Amino acid sequence: MFFGQQNKTAAAAPPSKQIYKNTKVKRSAMDRNPVRQSSSGAGASESSEQEDQKTPSAAEYMRNFKNIIAPGNEASMTREFNPQVAYEFEKYLNPQKLKQHVLKSEKLRSILEHYAQESGTPLKQMERQARAIIDEIGLERNMAIIRWCGIAITAIGKRICDGFYVNSASMANVRKDMGKCPVLYLPSHRSYMDFILMSYICYYYDIEIPGIAAGMDFHSMFGMGTMLRKTGAFFMRRSFSNDELYWDIFREYMYALVANYHIGVEFFIEGTRSRNFKALVPKIGLLSMALLPYFTGEVPDVMIVPVSVAYERVLEEQLFVYELLGVPKPKESTKGFFKALKIIDERFGKMFLDFGEPISVKEFFGHDSAQRMQRAGVGGHLQKLNRQEVELVKQLANEIIYQQQRRIVISTFNLLSLYYASQLYAQKSVTLDELARGVLHLKRIFEQLGAHVSTTPSSIKADVIDAVEIHSNILHFATGRLQFTPMAAKQLAEQIDVKRLKAHALCPQTMAVAVPMLALQLYINPCMFWLARPAYLLLAALKEQRNQQNQSTDISYDASLCALHAHVTTMDALFQHEFIIESNREAAEFETHLQLLLDERVVEVETSGRIKVQDNECSHVILAALAPFLCLYYQLVVTLRKIPLELEFSNKELLVRVQQHVEQLLQQPGASASHVHPYCLALDNLNIAIYALIQRGYLVKSRDSGQMKIASTPGKCLRELETQLLEYCQLMPFAQYSTAANQQAQFHIAKL
Residue 646, Cβ neighbours under 10 Å: how many? Predict the structure, then answer.
């Protein structure tokens, strides 16, 4: 079992030659100190040897993935199902008895008596209301429907996918620890396919299918809601903050599902699908509810299984791109579901699913039995986590997100998108040979950092061609060079209901540039877990190199490292809500990332402390990954600086202002505007950036009205933030980002 109690004091230490001596990190890539390297590049041969030693283990790890829908591997949906239960009891409840258990519990009775007395409602009426709420929430189980769904998933999967690849070794590792305590499965969430895959895989490996938290939008779908409920879904309202009775009854059902039921529980800690394909800030509401039986002492422990789901091509990809640009998603409906079945004529490549090392909550929190509160008999409406427990849950939630991201498989198209973007921003075209070489180089870099990459070196050109074919709606080869696939005339001419738009109505010219570039960026974003901090460090090195050129005082090696670390910490704080990489391993990761930049001859740190940065292909790729986010934050602040200090505005009004401002820049002749990327139009990321500015005190938001205004707090000056962001943008080796896409879009629209 993985037990992750972190040492925050050690993590906060400033860098030195032994920066991470007290930080425990498992990855071998993190077991190296930065070498004192002169301009001779002495560490390069050592790096090559380390990579050679690492490659077999990376390849061996990927060999653990088994295609469970390959011919001969398929699960029999008619076989007897005798699964391993998550939590073993002498006597097991069925779904109906679970509901009765909740309804008859002393805790629920005390809740109902409390509300009856408070509202003056007869107790019998409160009981009827409680029964109706539990019937709305509660899961059911019908093996015939589960088997039928399994047959359908196998058939559709074989038609649209190149395989469902599951890490059999990690699944076996999870299974061996089951039975002793409740189990929570917490997958990453990029697609509606996530919970379908989880149930299918549990059936395949003879593990009890967990109860799955689903939103009420599925409940209202004719036929679909019933089918999902009978396969193990339990339903929750998206928002019930004003309905305290519903909140308390849902919490009691969740309490019983964890403490008294045997199947395990699955939910998405991010709360919703990530439309930008990177981790979201964890929501701790459901996790707190699920851990309440542990804090009350009713269960001895809780086993948490982080699950990483990766898609070569996400089913909802195009839908997400349009949503990011402000086009609202269609309402979930049965008709919409069957309409979506047209995807069976498309290819979506491979799907990968990996299970993280199980986390023991008891060990993670460092508890012994005496430290846990014995409050199981307290009225349900009084059972709430205290401030210290909430803080522990937040730390656990961050660790879960961290473990999810570490095991997400990086595909050939992820690396191809990143490499192509770096060349595109430098106004260069790319051939198949150049792509193959670039992808292989990136594979080595990512594996050095500890990532799992699906690319096969022996068939690299075939892999690249196949990846482009799968994503032919985004990219294609023309005259031997890679370029964007133009949007269809029907898409450009499509009329959008302006009243339903989330922000500004973008013109067809802007859409023609933004749609392909946002789609490309979505597949770069999974790489940001690995590249965000190396990019911070590279920008820090560029900044320090310039500072050293302008100063005459002596420089020392340790002082240079401390300066680099300070810059990285500043950027970490700025982007902490954008890239969820908080793990209390900052010190060790600083060492790893510095070593990478030294190995790749991007950065040199001489014994004197003098820093030199080389402008090469590796530096371009790393900076290209971060550039769209820097541009977005910069353009947001530029927009805010134009708003009068006394003016109040809503979130939507701000989004409209930013999109209008960015569209004007993108439409300048020849796309000549600097520091603007079409990704600056992405609403989800703008909302994250706005939230970050609120959290850091640059914006003030009214709790009552939701209106915002620019803060007048001392030390929170938007002009200084704009200057800081502009400085980072100017350190980038790229002038414009959308020139090629803009030229291609103009040519395509003129042809139409």
Answer: 8
* pLDDT tens digits for range 696-715: 999 999 999 999 999 988 77
Domain range holding 721? 626-750
* Residues 290 and 245 grouped into a single domain: yes
Q: Are residues 107 and 212 in the same domain?
A: yes
Assign residue 134 the CATH number of its domain: 3.40.1130
Residues 550 and 599 in one domain: yes
Q: Is 25 helix (H, G, I), strand (E, B) or coil?
A: coil
CATH number at residue 635: 1.10.10
Q: Which residues of 195-218 are buried (b: 16+ CB within 10 A; e: fewer)?
A: bbbbbbbbbbbebbbbbbbbebeb
- Rounded mean pLDDT of 23-46? 35
Q: What angle do CA 24, 415, 665 make, to 5 degrees?
A: 110
Predicted pLDDT at 8: 38
Residue 53 has a pLDDT of: 45
Length of the chain: 752
Residue 66 counted as domain residue: no
Q: How far apart (Å, rounded) are the C-alpha atoms in residues 221 and 689? A: 34
In a domain? residue 536: yes
Q: Is residue 234 part of a domain?
A: yes
pLDDT of res. 336: 54
Output the pLDDT for position 36.
34
Smallest Cα–Cα separation from 199: which of 240, 149, 243? 149
Let me know whether 631 and 599 are in one domain.
Answer: no
At residue 109, φ and ψ (nearest 5 deg) are -60, -40
Q: How far apart are CA 668 and CA 671, in angstroms?
A: 5
pLDDT at 627 over 90: yes
Domain count, the chain: 3
User: 233: exposed, middle or buried (C-beta count within 10 Å: 0-12, 13-18, 19+)?
Assistant: buried
Is there a single domain that holds both residue 584 and residue 666?
no
Give the number of C-alpha atoms closer than 13 A to the C-alpha of residue 49, restricted to the C-beta side. Answer: 5
- Rounded to whole angstroms, how far apart are CA atoms 566 and 277? 29
- The span from the CA of 230 to the CA of 232, in Å, is 5
pLDDT in tens, 288-327: 999 999 998 999 999 999 999 999 999 999 999 999 999 8
In a domain, 275, yes or no: yes
> What pLDDT was estimated at residue 253?
97
pTM of the model: 0.90
Average pLDDT, the chain: 87
- Retrieve residue 148's tokens: 């039928």
For residue range 675-704, what is the model confidence (pLDDT) as tens digits? 999 999 999 999 999 999 999 999 999 999
d(CA 144, CA 81): 11
Q: Which of 584, 614, 644 is the last residue of a domain?
A: 614
Q: Are 690 and 654 in contact (CB under 8 A)?
A: yes
Query: Do 224 and 184 have their domain in common?
Result: yes
Q: Does one domain contain both 608 and 699?
A: no
Question: Do 250 and 151 have their domain in common?
Answer: yes
Cα gap 181→179, rounded to integer Å: 6
Q: Quick one: average pLDDT of 456-477?
A: 97
| pLDDT for the residue numbered 342 | 63
Domain C-terminal end among 614, 649, 684: 614
- Report how far Cα 117 is from the mean position of its chain's Cα atoms: 45
